[in-house]
Amino acid sequence: MIAYPARSMPGQIDHSPPLTAKSINMPQQQHILIIDDEVDMLQGLQRVLSFELESVTVSIVANPLEALELISKRNYELILLDVCMPEMNGMDLLVRIREIDPHVTMIMMTAYGSIETAVEAIRRGAYDFVTKPFEIPDLLRVLRKGLERNQLIRENLNLKAKVTQKNTFESFIGQTPTMRRLYDTIQALAHTNYTVLIRGQSGTGKELAARAIHDLSKRKAHPFFAVNCPAIPEQLLESELFGHKKGAFTGADTDYTGLFEEADGSTLLLDEIGDIPVSLQTKLLRVLQEQELRPLGGTRSKKINVRILASTNQDLEKKISERTFREDLFYRLNVVTVRTPTLREIRDDIPLLLDHLSKQFSAELEIPAKHFSLASAEMLMRRNWPGNIRELQNFVRRMLIFCKEEEIEPMHIQAVENPGTIPTLSEAFQICEMPTEPYIAARNKVLEQFTRSYVQNLLFTTNGNISRSAKMAGLSRVAMQKIMRRMDMQPLNFRNPERCPQ
Ligand SMILES: Nc1ncnc2c1ncn2[C@@H]1O[C@H](COP(=O)(O)OP(=O)(O)OP(=O)(O)O)[C@@H](O)[C@H]1O
Predict the structure, then answer these.
(1) Mutational pocket test of ligand 1: of 171, 180, 182, 204, the residue with most ligand atoms within 8 Å of the beta carbon
(2) Does the pLDDT value for residue 223 go beyond 70?
(3) What is the architecture, at CATH level 2, of domain 6-158?
(4) CB 3.0 to 4.6 Å from 77: which of 30, 160, 171, 452, for a disulfide?
(5) pLDDT (tens digit, 9 = 90+) per residue, 311-334?
């Protein structure tokens, strides 16, 4: 144990400018953890360092296992640890800490003269070392350097995270407050290890959300794993998830590594968890509770470190009441819920989505770019999209393939969806290109077709609403009704029950 020499008491020990958050552009408060089994030494260091290091909180812990628990719960900017501790060798502790936080700056306290130990500590990832007994000014110098290094590393990581975040959320389109809330939730959850239940209708981006949670997490260096539970027959699903040993059942000729083991260190999405058979739910619950896995036919359990995400579009509460889903599994999975919004809830994002999807699919299909007119976007915002973004994607693909025009208007949509019901304007104008009729008759025919096409488009856009159609056309309601009567048009024919009520 060291005793502080008189000259190293607070206020007298270091003449370099005090370390402040401002002087090295640090975050407001930094946290140092000191790990040493000598309690007097810990308390002494805590007192001195708290006094000397401005904007730094110094925590102390005498037990290495408790230290590991603390480190897994919060970030420390710097850890100062002793090499010799009875419960756990400081070298092993250093390696365990690295596994939890690969970027933390660690400084070892080694016995005087044991230079091999110091070298070994640095080889294993320590940033620097101080030899005991040390002078406080020397320790402060090393700590300051360590804090500065940490600051640089964290800034670098933050920059990298910002780039990753941008790329991650680039696969999401949407700027409505609802989507922004979803991004915030994903971001907040990514930094935790919580099991997350992602709920939402089909095609709302549940898998996309799961991937984003993984891509923004510390596990992102590992590949993301996903299994679509109902896609795998019940007899195979157990092996697929938990693996099996050779001879576990007829046909098990070799050992098979299950997804839980493959995904060790990474993230596993159990897609459509509502469809997992009850028999497997019990085993899944055990794995989640114990973080241990025993393959089929195996005799030994293995510790695993897998972050589980589960997704469903089903009413799990109803399944629980029908006893087809275990309530305890539900609570184990549902530590936090993320909800992906329906397309109807983010209808204001539809123009953005149309723009993005038409660019994306035009490129994929290698066809010239096309875009949706404002009137089309407005019309599509009024529709119901029971299949959500996936349905919108299919719709855009269909339109790009079948619509010949560069600007997609409501009438083109109508023509693709109900071929033959609306004459296109280009069809109407073909008469002018090939004048086979007297002028007055040809003009009336074109006008007639123009008016029919124009009003039909309007009514289609407004879902058969006469007042809105009249307003958009700059006509009175009466004039609009008159045209409709003349053309024998019924508003009901333009109302699509799948679209929103007016
Ligand atoms: N906000 C969004 N922006 C852009 N594309 C999206 C968005 N949400 C979903 N998608 C796309 O829609 C498609 C369906 O998404 P995803 O598979 O994640 O949905 P899901 O909810 O998991 O569907 P299901 O329950 O049917 O499996 C994917 O191609 C995905 O990239």
Answers:
(1) 204
(2) yes
(3) 3-Layer(aba) Sandwich (3.40)
(4) 30
(5) 999 999 999 999 999 999 999 999
Summarize pLDDT for 225-247 with one digit per residue, the tens: 999 888 888 778 888 899 988 88
Cis peptide bond prior to 133, omega within 30° of 0: yes
With the most atoms of ligand 1 within 8 angstroms of its CB, the residue from 173, 197, 208, 352 to mutate is 208
Residue 99 has pLDDT above 70, yes or no: yes
Side chain identity at residue 184, one-letter code? D
Ligand 1 close to Cβ of residue 64 (< 6 A) = no
CA–centroid distance, 230 to ligand 1, in Å, is 18
Q: Does the beta carbon of 206 lie inside 6 Å of ligand 1?
A: yes
| CA-closest residue to ligand 1 atom 26 | 202
pTM summary value: 0.59
More confident residue, 146 or 25: 146
Task: State the residue for tokens 């949407």.
Answer: 174
d(CA 145, CA 127): 10
**Class of domain 174-339 (CATH, top level):** alpha beta
Q: Percent of the chain having pLDDT more than 90?
A: 38
Higher pLDDT, 306 or 118: 306
Of 3.40.50.150, 3.40.50.1980, 3.40.50.920, 1.10.8.60, the CATH number of 344-419 is 1.10.8.60
The SS3 call for residue 99 is helix
| 3-state secondary structure (DSSP) of residue 272 | coil
Q: Is there an atom of ligand 1 within 6 Å of 205 CB?
A: yes
What span, in angstroms and rounded, lies between the C-alpha atoms of 316 and 324?
9
**CA-only gyration radius of the chain, Å:** 33
The answer to whether residue 26 scores a pLDDT higher than 90 is no
Best mutation site among 182, 197, 202, 207 for ligand 1, i.e. most ligand atoms within 8 A of its Cβ? Answer: 207
Pocket flag, ligand 1, residue 174 (CB < 6 Å) = yes
